[in-house]
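User: Could you check the structure of this?
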Amino acid sequence: MAPTSERWNNATQKFDVKAGPKYEGVADEKGAYTVLLDLQAAQKQLAEKENADARYVDVRVTPPPDTDSQHGRTEQRRFDLRATKEPIHVYLVGSTRNRPGIFPTTLYVSTTYADGSPAECEVELRGLFEPARQP
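Assistant: Sure, the predicted structure tokens are below.
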């Protein structure tokens, strides 16, 4: 498996693919193939991003093509691995931009694992909340 980066080339009408390190192995009798990927470069890239919004880095992985022995058909797949700073991501959605300082307002809290699946959590909101201004 090789982490890759790819860009669409309008001139050739194909993807220009830059492959990373190559990992090889043999599938077992059930067709499972296990490999350990070195994600140190992704972790370093993530650590260098000082922006608080940079919670994760996606690494594109391209395994070797899989050939179906029964039909002789070859298929190329790609997938992303996610290197993340935190195991659970907390998102607060809602805004008082159009009405600063006006409360109550509606806020939504979402917690997910790095893969995007929901994470059941207890969340406590703390901060400075001012009462609604009287006209």
